[in-house]
Amino acid sequence: MSVPLAERLRPQTLDDIVGQRHLLAPGKPLRNIILSGELPNMIFYGPSGVGKTTLASIIAKQTDRHLVHLNGTTAGVSDIKDVISRVDTFLAPGGILLYLDEIQYLNKKQQQTLLEYIEKGSITLIASTTENPYFYVYNAILSRSTVFEFKTVTPADIVPAVERAFRFMEKERGEIVETEKGTVPYIAQACGGDVRKAMNAVELCVLSAPLADGKRTVTLETARALTQKSAMRYDRAGDDHYDILSAFQKSMRGSDPDAALHYLARLLEAGDLPSACRRLMVCAAEDVGLAYPMILPIVKSAVDMANMVGLPEARIPLADAVVLVCTAPKSNSAYLAFDQALADIKSGKSGPIPRTLQNVHCDGEDNPNKGQFYLYPHDYENHWVSQQYLPDALRNTRYYHFGANRTEQAAREYWEKIKKRNDAQ
What we know:
20 helices; elongated
């Protein structure tokens, strides 16, 4: 089986690693720790293809440790015990550096198996994860480790790596490889900050370019065809999914149509129509709400249309609805009012429903004041009459406060006028 270009070109020194200058530039803490030779247990947190595995390999060489690589998706307790059995043997005279990739897939028991040995220092753990370690890693492991966050690599940092990859392929194959203007920066941009994807794209571009007189010419069109979706970082069960959804809703709430359309495009490009529709409807109700009440049926109609026509045409009504939500006035008054009411319910602030609001019940003989005494509002002027609706324990509690938008202020003025007239009578 052919070894992928990303593996053949894997960096061998700290200075060869692309990006992560906030961790590995001269004078930065992680670099200093590695150069000291005294390694703490560490957790590398960040997206795939940004150098976590590569750095672990370099650390093992630099500190003369025996590197054992396990992957959380396939490793079990028996694999971990096998690593433990090598401690203090001739197989690992300098100590074991266990690189545990995708640690979030190990259950609590599996992670606990390591505790005794990482506490003693007989095993140094470097765990990596693409998910937030504070949510997915067992707390006892976290408390004994230092978390370092790896960032998505910028296109500017990836450009030299792409150029180096083309030169490497040229030398390896003994062929001339030329790239059309704009091809290298396009690959660097389209890989979405994943260096591994960029290397894969380079290899595919070279292999697919026709050979003529010992020369291959990689065109921009070829690069576009082979990297058409590689900029997408998306996992419907992972952090990227929720980060995009969060950014999508916050952009609509913040009235930024350009950003909201950007995140909508990312969702739809990944084929995640249901999530886009759900967040759009939630935002219409939560963030526009009573400032423009008609937005609710409008957005619902746009969502129904999108689901009826499907992708790619679904983008058209959804784009209309997203821009409408962004440019509409905002109010979360009803949302806040409900949350306050719910907080009272959860804290036990409730009580019997007032007799006037109950369904008709038969009065017992012990009730000296028989009758329900409900006042039917439509029998009164302006279809309103003062009476108690909340339970006695919450009497006069205010949850809802009119928002400072035209619609709610008009309602406030209307009801203030009616209630003052009633008080004056």
